[in-house]
Design brief:
The protein is of the alpha/beta class. The protein has helices spanning 42-49, 71-76, 94-100, 109-119, 136-148, 166-183, 194-200, 218-222, 225-232, and strands at 2-13, 16-27, 31-35, 55-61, 64-65, 79-82, 154-158, 186-190, 203-208, 211-217. Residues 4-234 form the ABC transporter domain. This is ABC transporter ATP-binding protein.
Length: 236
């Protein structure tokens, strides 16, 4: 069953249209990768899904229309967005950042904090440390942990590997896959590292100049000659 259904989505900034008739679905509990070159509209797509950019068309989560609702309303509906650049509150402590992720509710916070420390044990000894003093990898873990404090139904990840060492990136994607498997959270991830994204995703879509030009399972996309040459560095 499709959890997220995007139909004929147009979106942009001011008078500049970025997304054109974008249509795709993501199954319940799936990881969906969005691939494409810089400037293709990938970040705009996630912003439209989280209510940060106004769009026209249809975006339904579990059968409920999301378009036209502000970001705080979508957060209360279970849409969590980890933006490019992480978006952590640098002067606040690690614990304060995590608790902010659960601002829409007040129940079970301590249990959820323990759950986050299970996924990201490196954060626990740094609870009282300012987020700005963390390494890049730790900040990305904090941003993801804060999003998980929402208990999201839909998790949107924008370039989670940006600026991270390969070892840290692989660990981060391993954690994303574990979260998806254990909590059945539906994930849409925008990622330049196509190898990693296709390694964890069940489904993928290629976005170019604001349009979906290729869709399929991760295995199908990996075997496509155009994708292999453009994003994976080999010929099929």
């Amino acid at each position: 069953m499709s959890e997220l259904v995007v139909t004929g989505l147009d979106a942009g900034y001011g008078g500049a249209q970025v997304l054109h008739d974008v249509t795709f679905t993501v199954g319940e509990g799936e990881i969906c990768a969005i691939l494409g070159p810089n400037g293709a509209g990938k970040t705009t797509l996630l912003r439209a899904l989280s209510g940060m950019v106004k769009g026209r068309g249809g975006v339904r989560l579990g059968g409920v229309e999301l378009l036209g609702r502000p970001p705080d309303a979508l957060a209360r509906m279970g849409v969590a967005h980890v933006p490019e650049g992480r978006g952590t509150f640098m002067p606040l402590t690690v614990e304060e950042n995590l608790r902010l992720g659960a601002y829409t509710r007040r129940d079970g916070l301590e249990q959820d904090l323990d759950r986050i420390y299970t996924y990201f044990p490196a954060l626990k000894p740094r609870l009282k440390q300012a987020a700005g003093s963390l390494s890049g990898g730790e900040q990305q873990m904090l941003a993801l942990g804060r999003a998980l404090m929402l208990r999201p139904r839909l998790l949107l990840l924008d370039e989670p590997s940006l600026g991270l060492a390969p070892l840290v990136t692989r660990e981060l994607f391993r954690i994303v896959r574990t979260i998806n498997e254990q909590e059945r959270t539906t994930v849409v991830v925008v990622e330049q590292n196509a190898h990693l994204a296709l390694g964890v995703a069940q489904r993928a879509h290629v976005l170019e100049t604001g349009r979906i030009v290729l869709s399929g399972t991760a295995a199908q996309i990996r075997q496509d000659e155009q994708v292999a040459q453009s994003y994976l560095g080999y010929r099929v």
